[in-house]
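Running co-folding for XIL.
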Amino acid sequence: MKSIFAVVALLALATARPAHHARQAPATTPLNDLIKAKGKLYFGTATDFLDTTGERTDTTYQEILNTTSEFGAQTPGNAMKYDTTEPTQGQFNYAPGQQVLDYAAANGQLVRCHNLIWHQQLPSWLTSRTWTSADNATLQGIMKNHITSLITHYADACYAWDVVNEPLVDGTGALQSSPWLDAIGPEYFPLAFKFASDAAAQVKAATGKDIKLYVNEYNDEYAGTKTTALLNLVQSVQAREIRIDGVGFESHFIVGQTPDRATQAAAKKQFADLGLDVAVTELDVRFSSLPPTSAGLAQQATDYVNSVGSCLDVEKCVGVTVWDFEDKYSWIPSTFSGQGEADLYSDDYSAKPAVAAIQELLAG
Ligand code: XIL
């Protein structure tokens, strides 16, 4: 009887949401296994272990997150950001980030550590005052201490670090205003990579392992002012003979407005041609209005495939990370009012058509 009820319940679900199907056991959807067979390093996901989100106590979520055949890498969504790691100047809180590293290590998963220098999620001791060029030396010291402390503390547990996050303004391609830019000027960008590469060299000396140093940006997934500005920025670091290893393409897309596969591959290739690794770092594809239609879910699947496919098309693209995999924990609804359903799984854990579409792409 029980199983009949289960079938009836599934049928009811299928009727209510025609394009969804019930999620199968993780072993049948091994996105990480599939992408590795294509020569990539990982298919990963963001995760958020700060106590407020509920992800830590959601056993279904944890089961999928900790299935390494599904996800070969994790990115902490918030746990390593400035406001969490250095809430008081010079006093570091490494514990939340360490939780993610411990789970990942137990699972044999890589971790993309995120992030060191950004203009958002800064502690109040950095934002409650105005910084000017008179504070140049002070802010260089603050920046160096933060970068060095985090990189050397977490050491080789980080496969990569997003050293600078979202440095550019949409549209203009100007450097984003921040305490770093206000006090240090445009030199803050190559300096951040200098401090990071010095710290990474210390880790290498101690462990023998290299940490990949990335700049991470959005709206760099297609040709445009911002992408050109990012190319120039990367080259300004290389021209100073400072190490920069990779460029992250966040890839927060909207259903039906996602750049096509060739466009995304071409943007990545421009950076690969500079000798850099590239990666899809925060992929999600949101509906700008809800609820989704069946046609919308099919379009979302195509959009996901275009992004993952663009990574397959570029040899130096190392992997793909989704910005969490379960709608319950997506950042979209709280940031973009009225939008959502951006992740691979609906909030009842049913897999969206995008999951099968990515599997088909990667198995092909
Ligand atoms: C988001 C987190 O997912 C949210 O929980 C938080 O409230 C805001 O930041 N680009 C980034 C990520 O580089 O760090 C952001 O993460 C999403 C946009």
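Result summary
The two ends are 40 Å apart (CA to CA).
Residues 77-78, 165, 216, 250, 282, 331 surround XIL (CB under 6 Å).
Job closed.
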